[in-house]
Specification:
Two copies of one chain form a homodimer. Chain A has helices spanning 11-31, 37-59, 63-72, 75-84, 87-94, 99-107, 111-119, 123-129, 135-143, 147-158, 164-167, 181-190, 216-221, 228-231, 245-255, 275-293, 306-332, 335-340, 343-371, 380-409, 413-443, 452-475; strands at 174-176, 200-204, 210-215, 233-234, 259-263, 269-274. By secondary structure, chain A is mainly alpha-helical. The N and C termini of chain A lie far apart (83 Å). Chains A and B meet through α1, α3, α12, α13 and α15 of A and α1, α3, α12, α13 and α15 of B.
Chain lengths: 476, 476
């Protein structure tokens, strides 16, 4: 019985590849030493043998596994494996890579080699990576395509990012409504190659207008003499190329779909959107939300160079620095008050911190609600009111606790009361800002995950300091 | 030509349902007033007509759309629509709901009604919602099942959460390797009902041991006389019921799969894992990461009651309060230093804040890397070293800028130097903690998204205050 693969654990392969690479490095170091000609020859042979071993190990991998291995390797190792790939392998792997890793590998590859790789991409894949290719590499690759394929790539590239048109495949299987099941099957058999992951074929009329769809199951198991139009599902969900993938993703999820036809404005069939493109989109979007909230401009290759990483992070760090500076100006206003009671300096970060925390909880929930389209026009006010009440409740509860604790620690009841009041007010502000900021960013056509957290923290820090120290000046 | 649906926009339906509900409320308010018997009769009739309209509107909806509408409605409206559903509709919708919304609706439903609803769930769906049903409702629903179905539900419920066994379906279509394509198709035709979304059927030997799989495409289009064993794909990816869905999701994504067989330890076919279960898992997990980093214990129904929301958020708020208190104790140590130079109180939050920000960037990247399995044993040290260098670089750059700025603002060069030094040190600590904490939580078998951020902020706040004020005491 063959060894059956029940999962796809890459760790053993990764260990093996890493071992081969280390060996390679050691051999290279040896080969660069001055030595007797005889020993140098032996070392050269060993080096070549090692390269052959590596190549053999890699050749056996599924392109998706190869891509995963590349992503798991630190930068130098990754570059070494990438260089050792044949153009065909590199072409297969490059479409499977994470976009950030792909971009960095393409940037590090010589033009002539990149041309060879691009020449081996099929039209759909070429369109998929087109935006990351150097323009002359893309131009050369396009030139070698048939006119219709070139047209296809050109159209796909022109669709905006995250539109259905940009991620659909033009490779569809359609049958006529007037055919019988038997003749439809015969037609499909005649095609030299069928689209992958075919769960259903689309049904069109004589003018290629979409009229329905039929599952392969119905084709395979239905009575062969029946007419397609009598067994197809009519009025299927269909997308336009200009629809957003976000919208499409929600439809796929809601109805558990595998493939959906894409039609133009005259409802003619132009493509097919597959679940795997949708899964990619969901991953990348969720990812962008998590990273955006943490103040990163975009996904980042974990093994990117230090400079690339520093650049990816610097924008929001800078913004944060400016807002932190601005927020602490509110402290500056009250330096004389602090001088009178230094305990204020010790306690004020608590007021700011708990405000930031409750506010960020609200921000995260609102961003999630927006992503899932769970916030409708009708319910915004309801949500705002509810969050403010939750903030008030948390403020009374935790603010009360903190106030008592601070009052006892500093044997100063009024200080405790001021702290409680400041926390309650700050949490109410945090709740309101936490709802308004992401919704406002969304309505302004911006990504709510980017910046919502920074804006919120600026507000809760400023207000935390201002309320606490201001109340202290008034009442102490 | 029928009105063709190219997207699935629910806003018009939502507006209509909301309108009917508002009308209903207004009518109810009228009906409760004292009035002439004649007018009361008219109002009663209007109320009944409104209920019929609502019912008619809802009956036309796809169960998934009904569930989406329920989720979009504020709490009271949602309860009203839910109450008005027939048991059959409620059963169809309940499996489509978000888990948190489902749990709150089930909790608010009377036992007797919940029994009626549960009695209408098929075995797979019953197993899916079993953990959220009151135990006697589940017991009654189980009692009405056939013995084999009851066994199925019992087994599914026993699989741990997020295992393949818990989300697979037992509804599989298998053919024998010894059959011909024609006889396999005839067998499939004889089955009264076939599994939904059938992209491929699994091939088993006489003892039900999985030996391969064959796409419906190959069945439908292959030569009818060929033997299955000669055209099937051998050695397919298969999962065990105990495998984690996280692992399975990566395999689905990596190889762009739609369905995968599930086998027991003796490699006998026991179920099928579908892409839609995987998509749900990816959504929920990504979601948990985003929410967990923001300090929420779990997903939260946006329209949950105030008390439920407050409870969901209180744990991490409390933890944060304690850590904030602990961190500010470091300020307490230096109150005399602050009294000498109050500017220290104004500037110290900046040192803490920029530390928290860089650290959280690292935390988010590491959590993402863990989710995508992009961090292998081999590369942890590499990653740690890299992040520390990035931290150092950012520290020198932004710390330098802040130091100069602070030095000029307060006309105090040494204060600026101390601030720069404290920021550099804090960013290096933040980078190290940002890598170590999520990796440590993961290795300890915990969810890295829950708590990593709080732990990190505690470290960067404490160290920010301690380093800045400590250096100030030493050198000012």
């Amino acid at each position: 019985m063959p060894d059956r693969r029940t999962t796809a654990d890459l760790q053993p392969t990764l260990d093996e590849v890493t071992g081969l690479l280390q060996h390679h490095r050691a051999l290279e170091a040896l080969a660069h030493r001055q030595d007797t000609p005889q020993r140098m020859l032996v070392e050269q042979l060993q080096l070549r043998q090692n390269a052959v071993d590596l190549q053999r190990r890699i050749r056996a991998l599924h392109p998706a596994d190869l891509a995963a291995i590349l992503q798991l390797l630190p930068y130098d190792d990754r570059a070494m494996v990438w260089q050792s790939l044949e153009a065909r392998q590199a072409a297969d792997a490059v479409v499977e890579l994470d976009a950030v890793v792909r971009a960095s590998l393409i940037a590090a590859t010589e033009r002539s080699r990149m041309r060879e790789i691009a020449a081996r991409l099929d039209p759909d894949d070429l369109a998929w990576v087109a935006s990351e290719l150097p323009s002359e590499v893309l131009r050369d690759a396009m030139r070698s395509l048939a006119a219709s394929d070139r047209q296809l790539v050109r159209e796909t590239v022109e669709y905006p990012e995250n539109s259905v048109g940009a991620v659909m495949t033009a490779d569809v299987a359609a049958v006529r409504e007037s055919e019988t099941i038997a003749s439809a099957l015969a037609d499909l058999r005649r095609r030299s190659e069928l689209p992958r992951q075919l769960d259903r074929v689309f049904v069109v009329d004589a003018r290629n207008v979409l009229v329905g769809s039929i599952t392969l199951q119905a084709l395979a198991l239905g009575q062969q003499g029946l007419q397609i139009s009598s067994v197809m599902e009519i009025d299927p969900v269909a997308f336009k190329p200009g629809d957003s993938v976000a919208q499409a993703a929600r439809v796929f999820e809601r109805y558990d779909l595998v493939s959906v036809p894409v039609v133009n404005d005259r409802y003619k069939l132009v493509g097919r959107l597959m679940i795997d493109a949708v899964v990619d989109f969901i991953r990348v979007t969720a990812d962008k939300d998590t990273l955006g909230m943490a103040g990163l401009r975009g996904a980042e290759d974990l093994f990117a160079s230090v400079w690339q990483s520093a650049r990816n992070r610097s924008l929001w760090l800078f913004v944060n620095l400016v807002t932190a500076f601005a927020a602490t100006r509110f402290i500056g206003l009250f330096e004389s008050t602090i001088r009178e009671l230094v305990a204020l300096a010790t306690l004020m970060p608590i007021v700011a911190s708990i405000g930031g925390n409750t506010g960020n909880q609200t921000v995260a929930l609102v961003i999630r609600g927006l992503a899932f389209e769970q916030i409708s026009r009708n319910s915004t006010m309801h949500l705002l009111r509810k969050e403010i009440i939750v903030g008030l409740l948390n403020g009374v509860m935790w603010g009360g606790l903190v106030g008592v604790f601070a009052g006892i620690t500093y044997k100063h009841a009024r200080l405790g009361g001021i702290m409680t009041t400041a926390i309650i007010l700050n949490l109410v502000i945090a709740a309101a800002v936490g709802v308004i900021v992401p919704l406002g960013l969304q309505r302004a056509g911006r990504d709510p995950a980017q910046g919502a957290s920074v804006l919120l923290t600026f507000m809760t820090d400023s207000m935390g300091f201002f309320l606490f120290l201001g109340l202290a000046r008034l009442f102490l």
